[in-house]
């Protein structure tokens, strides 16, 4: 089995950063009224700026595949071009269409010759699953390099016109809020962007060796928490869009991303630390073996609670080991861990032998992914 190294890393965040007061201008006002939930959500998540693939005139500047292509091209130079890529593995929560696959569309924009493509589905863990596919392919000797990405273009999913038809069909507005908090919650959380890494079987320059990767799912015992393309029924079952008449797709805003906030708050941290302990125990590491802890969290609301959960379950990680950039770039879903790692590498503070733990939760139906890296 071959060793696997991250030898290059890049990110692409579109256009200018958007502050909290510009958000509703970009995404639109629903039913002619400013959101009451926006300030509550922003106060809790403490995100100050984020990025949208929308220009100053409200025009869409990039789709998801184009955002991904931009990050990949930033990996390349005269010594390694897009034509040298042997495997392309691209994860996202927000593909531009159901078919063709996201990686196929990215490949179409790259126009770089024949290669293998892989498109893991899912939410935030899809980026880590894309990374793991490349990791295993190189480890098994199938390829000598792979480009793995995480990306999101959710701003257009959050624009007001997605919800307007549903608002028009609500009958008792006093008893039924204009937009359920579960649906509006994510409007003020998500950001657009992409990140990419080059994996190779030999270290070059400042490289990060991937020691191991692990993934865990709790779907066997947990109902759906975050979803798009369906509606959650009172019994917890997720009814897919394909089982609704076409006229109901807009009436129920079936393609909007939604979050069961109560289920999220009750379970996301406990399951996360439980799975973290399993990964650490399997690979015989302790918190003393971690120099940098990069947890992907959707909101700073969870930061203090995550620390307390870690402490409560006996795996306390001191604050000085934490590295996050949520407040500056927003929640970029599958791209977040790539964007976070790129900033850490670019900071110049890493030294040979440092150990980095990546921790990525996915609330869709409670999945968790981990990677443990060594600075070479």
UniProtKB/TrEMBL annotation:
CDD domains: init_cond_enzymes
SUPFAM superfamilies (UniProt xref): Thiolase-like
GO BP: any one term: secondary metabolite biosynthetic process
Keywords in alphabetical order: Acyltransferase, Transferase
Keyword Nucleotide-binding: no
Molecular-function GO term, any one: acyltransferase activity
Domain of life: Bacteria
Domain Beta-ketoacyl-[acyl-carrier-protein] synthase III C-terminal: 281-358
Domain Beta-ketoacyl synthase-like N-terminal: 119-202
Coiled coil: none
Keyword Glycoprotein: no
Annotated NCBIfam families: PRK06816.1 (NF005293)
Identification of the protein by name: 3-oxoacyl-[acyl-carrier-protein] synthase-3
Species name: Arenibacter troitsensis
